């Protein structure tokens, strides 16, 4: 029997992980609402700064608004403090913004990851700003499948290149089982030298 999603469910498979020499964020490109595919080219992985990124699952308008707000605050911080904002500070700022909207929440689950003087870090946030630090995480309708792949293959000393391959495998596997996910994968890798975005089509 075909999988049928309630009309209010917003599909996605979004994930991130800490590697020995950086962080990886990845998400597929499909935007669906229930059983309706709205777009096949949606961007869900973003640079906040050259060394911090965010990946989201949820309402496109909400996570775009949240990302633009954090990017603006990060730019203001770097101008005033004469140094880049830290990964933890950016995640805590995002948490504060989400919590301040708890009565009219932004419908987005978010993963923030980056590399700074404290090393590679990753934080997961729900729609009301709960902040959890972890080595890897997955959010969205495909998260159950993706987290199973990550838990079985992730290791503490994984390299950035290995992490990129694992992220692709986890999103691809989830997309094969979750009708609300698919249509290619955006992968953002960040290390001490900066960030790089890669698009991989799903066959």
Adjacency order of strands in the biggest sheet: 10-1-2-11-12
Which CATH class is shown?
Answer: Alpha Beta
Give the amount of beta strand, in percent.
Answer: 25-35%
Give the distance, in angstroms, between the N- and C-terminal Cα atoms. 23 Å
Low-confidence region ranges: none
Q: How many domains, in number, for the residues?
A: 1
Structural class: alpha+beta
Mean pLDDT comes to 89
Major beta sheet summary: 5 strands, antiparallel
What is the level-2 CATH architecture name?
A: 4-Layer Sandwich
> Percent helix among the residues?
25-40%
**CATH homology-level superfamily:** Aminohydrolase, N-terminal nucleophile (Ntn) domain
**General shape:** globular
Report the C-alpha radius of gyration, rounded. Answer: 16 Å
Per DSSP E runs of 2 or more residues, the count of β-strands stands at 12
Helix and strand sequence: EEEEEEHHEEEEHHEE
The helix count comes to 4
CATH fold node name: Glutamine Phosphoribosylpyrophosphate, subunit 1, domain 1
Please describe what this structure looks like:
The chain has a single domain (14-188), classed as Aminohydrolase, N-terminal nucleophile (Ntn) domain (Glutamine Phosphoribosylpyrophosphate, subunit 1, domain 1, 4-Layer Sandwich). Helices cover 32% and strands 34% of the residues. The chain has four helices and twelve strands; from the N terminus they run E-E-E-E-E-E-H-H-E-E-E-E-H-H-E-E. It has helices at 60-81, 87-100, 143-153, 160-177; strands at 14-19, 22-28, 31-33, 36-39, 45-49, 52-58, 108-116, 119-125, 131-133, 136-139, 185-191, 194-200. Strands 10-1-2-11-12 form a five-stranded antiparallel β-sheet, with helices on one face. Strands 5-6-7-8-9 form a five-stranded antiparallel β-sheet, covered by helices on one side. Strand 1 and strand 2 (22-28) form a beta hairpin.
